[in-house]
Amino acid sequence: MYKEEGEKMKDKYGREIDYLRISLTDKCNLRCAYCMEKDHNDFIHNDNLMTLDEILRVVKECASIGIKKVRLTGGEPLVREGIVDLIKNINKIPEIEEICLTTNGILLGDKVKELSENGLKRVNISLDTLKEDRFKEITRIGTLDKVLYSIEKCLENNVKVKINTVTLEDFNKDEILDLIDLACKNPIDLRFIELMPIGEGKKFKCVTNSEILEIIKKEKKVLSDGKTLRLNGPAKYISIEGFKGKIGFISAMSDCFCEDCNRIRVTPEGFMKQCLHWKYGINLRDKMRNGISDEDLREIIKKSIYEKPEKHNFKMKEKDEDKRFMYEIGG
């Protein structure tokens, strides 16, 4: 039923699971309107977060059963103390081929050189607008220049960059062409992400990726006859004539990609989630603090991966839905 020595780790639907996303904290230095309430300040107590040693132990056991790629998320992962040492230690695990980070970019510019020197290979940076007033409106307390500076410093330090953009009706739909120009002038990929109905995200109406693609095709020459290509992950990509980077579309709502899902998630409190949407999983932190052996920890991780659900079912079975906010789960 589970992975044998030398085999790839697969769930019961035959999908190879080789990608681990770990949220380091639910804390964030922004209050993005579709993610967190404006005055929210009730975060997980430090004692309830996985320690860095516990995180490293989880990564080691996951690596031993087939995980090759690790992404650190939040909240905002760069507000977690000790992140440089954590990346350094994860980088020492032979089976881990790539360490990535998802960030809002506010703190990244001054840290990316050290992070890169210790093993960070890629970053995903959230950026929904190139207008300072809109940036302040959507993030409530952010500064656009810091994010643009972080993108520049990543490129200087050979850290590969993807920009994640959420496009909302009556907010930034008119900036689509301006945003994709970032991928024209720089070797970065820009991905449009359909907002998922999780937490505060339920209050907003997103622009579908099919609409965005039509806007782009009217103004730009899309290569490969406008066909989209799915690479290693949930995004489908297009190439545009003259662009250094690609344009991607993550269409969780309008074009479910669950059949190709290769990931498993761990929340800041150590709860291993089989799917972003479903509430099911197992608390690895509690198991470790109760003295579980490495062998038994490895076995419960394998079982959790094997039982990963077939698809997210955002539109079905509310009783099975995870009611937490995205920053609590790990975006």
From TrEMBL:
Top-level division of the source organism's lineage: Bacteria
Domain Radical SAM core, chain residue ranges per copy: 12-241
Annotated positions binding S-adenosyl-L-methionine: 34, 75, 126, 196
One of the protein's GO biological processes: Mo-molybdopterin cofactor biosynthetic process
UniProt KW keywords: 4Fe-4S, GTP-binding, Iron, Iron-sulfur, Lyase, Metal-binding, Molybdenum cofactor biosynthesis, Nucleotide-binding, S-adenosyl-L-methionine
Catalyses which reaction(s): GTP + AH2 + S-adenosyl-L-methionine = (8S)-3',8-cyclo-7,8-dihydroguanosine 5'-triphosphate + 5'-deoxyadenosine + L-methionine + A + H(+)
S-adenosyl-L-methionine as UniProt keyword: yes
InterPro entries xrefs: Aldolase_TIM, Elp3/MiaA/NifB-like_rSAM, MoaA, MoaA-like, MoaA_NifB_PqqE_Fe-S-bd_CS, MoaA_twitch, MoCo_biosynth_MoaA/MoaC, rSAM
Cofactor note: Binds 2 [4Fe-4S] clusters. Binds 1 [4Fe-4S] cluster coordinated with 3 cysteines and an exchangeable S-adenosyl-L-methionine and 1 [4Fe-4S] cluster coordinated with 3 cysteines and the GTP-derived substrate.
Protein name: GTP 3',8-cyclase
Organism of provenance: Clostridium perfringens
Classification lineage: Bacteria, Bacillati, Bacillota, Clostridia, Eubacteriales
Gene: moaA
